[in-house]
Amino acid sequence: MSSVPRITELLLKGYSVPEIVEELGKLKASSVKVYVRRLLGEMTDAQRAAVERARDERGSAKPDVYHRKFSDRPVLGPVHVRIGHRLLAKRQRLKMSHGEFCEHFEFSNRVMLSAMEQGYHDFKISEVLRIAEILEVHVDDLLCPPAGRMAA
């Protein structure tokens, strides 16, 4: 049996993607996101408005953190901010847009780069190593506070 009718029903009741995943149990979040995007794209304006009304009335039990504005997310910490500022300074010195910088240094996307620059991205070790290479610095220079300053 197809999950599409059930996903449509849950959307019209105002369920978020995480809630639909929890309700269905058998589908991965990535699959549900694909279905939801497709279903929302196929809905009429009236149906999409009904989904929004249902979401507003129901409220969201689990906020979708990924889709919040960066300014509404907590900054992860001083190391994240320091790495981000250094990355931003390098991009500005090179006079590159987010897209150009991503393409040149093979970052996955502009949104992730923007999150990195603002201190909202939780870096993987491989990313820190790649950023140190791009900035032409040692990893310690990225992770440790400058001499004479204490870590926050």
TrEMBL record:
<feature type="domain" description="HTH cro/C1-type">
    <location>
        <begin position="110"/>
        <end position="142"/>
    </location>
</feature>
<protein>
    <recommendedName>
        <fullName>HTH cro/C1-type domain-containing protein</fullName>
    </recommendedName>
</protein>
<dbReference type="InterPro" id="IPR010982">
    <property type="entry name" value="Lambda_DNA-bd_dom_sf"/>
</dbReference>
<dbReference type="InterPro" id="IPR001387">
    <property type="entry name" value="Cro/C1-type_HTH"/>
</dbReference>
